[in-house]
TrEMBL record:
Its main location: cytoplasm. This is Urease accessory protein UreD. Keywords: Chaperone, Cytoplasm, Nickel insertion. UreD, UreF and UreG form a complex that acts as a GTP-hydrolysis-dependent molecular chaperone, activating the urease apoprotein by helping to assemble the nickel containing metallocenter of UreC. The UreE protein probably delivers the nickel. It is found in: Cytoplasm. Belongs to the UreD family. It comes from Streptomyces lunalinharesii. It comes from the Bacteria. Required for maturation of urease via the functional incorporation of the urease nickel metallocenter.
Length: 273
């Protein structure tokens, strides 16, 4: 008697979840016995490729590289980065992130969770997020700081690519120190957000950003209010912004500009002091 042995099934590619891609990237910085910052966790996935780049002095640096177009409508993306006690970490990106419409019309979500331990220093300096026409993105960023943590956090949003209208963009930023809220704000631009392009909000500007600086040095010496760009007498097309102290050991720069280049100049001007 003969027996038929089933042929092994051909390997199949993992199907994407219905409605979009799910992906989480994780970065953990940890100090070794000599105080050198190591990266025991450097885990990309989906559209996130993470590369360690050349360190500077005692600061370890990594770069986020887009491995595919994302976020697209229906995607659920997340980045989790932790700088443990005594570490120094800078996170940058190789290119802008472009929010794109999907085939189903579903919204996309992009969540960022940053944790900074005692005596640690984290610099979060990605390239701009561009809201392309037809896209719908909800972005949330949550930052948890230990009492003696230091943070440099930059966020830039460009509403539409050249010659096109913006998509719908909702963004929330929450920053806590030792469990106490330093900043909790939410913004909305594009379709469904009333008044965002009026003179009371952005007017003709299509780039908006902020720079948050936090650290124990602001306890004894709070930041002084400073106007930037057109608010300080520069040309109108330079954009405008303001640097101001916020409750707690931090300073916040808020800026708007006609385009991403002018916005970056304003934030760099503020960072340079």
């Amino acid at each position: 008697m003969t027996r038929t042995v089933p042929r092994p099934a051909a390997p199949q590619a993992t199907a994407l979840p219905a409605g979009g891609l799910r992906a989480t990237a994780r970065i953990v910085a940890r100090a070794d016995a000599h105080g050198v910052t190591r990266l025991p966790v450097l885990d990309g996935g989906g559209p996130f490729a993470i590369r360690r780049i050349q360190s500077h002095a005692d600061q370890t640096r990594v770069c986020l590289i887009g491995a595919m177009s994302a976020p697209i409508g229906g995607d659920r993306l997340c980045i989790e980065a932790t700088a443990e006690a005594g570490t120094s970490l800078r996170i940058t990106a190789a290119a802008a992130t472009v929010a794109l419409p999907g085939r189903t019309g579903d919204l996309a979500t992009y969540d960022v969770h940053l944790t900074v331990g005692d005596g640690a220093h984290l610099e979060w300096l990605p390239e701009p997020l561009i809201s392309a026409e037809g896209s719908d993105l909800r972005m949330t960023t949550t930052v948890d700081l230990a009492p003696t943590a230091r943070l440099v956090f930059r966020e830039e949003q460009v509403l539409g690519r050249a010659g096109e209208r913006t998509g719908a963009l909702r963004s929330r930023l929450t920053v806590r120190q030792a469990g106490r809220t330093l900043l909790d704000q939410e913004t909305a631009y594009g379709p469904g957000a009333p008044g965002w392009d009026t003179s009371a909000v952005l007017g003709d500007n299509r780039a908006v950003g902020q720079l948050l600086l936090a650290g124990p040095e602001f306890v004894d010496k709070p930041a002084e209010v400073r106007l930037l760009g057109a608010a300080a007498g520069a040309e109108p097309n330079a954009g405008q912004g303001v640097l101001a102290p916020i409750a707690g050991p931090a300073a916040l720069v808020t800026a708007i500009a006609p385009d991403g280049l002018a916005l970056r100049r304003l934030l760099d001007e503020a960072a340079a002091g």
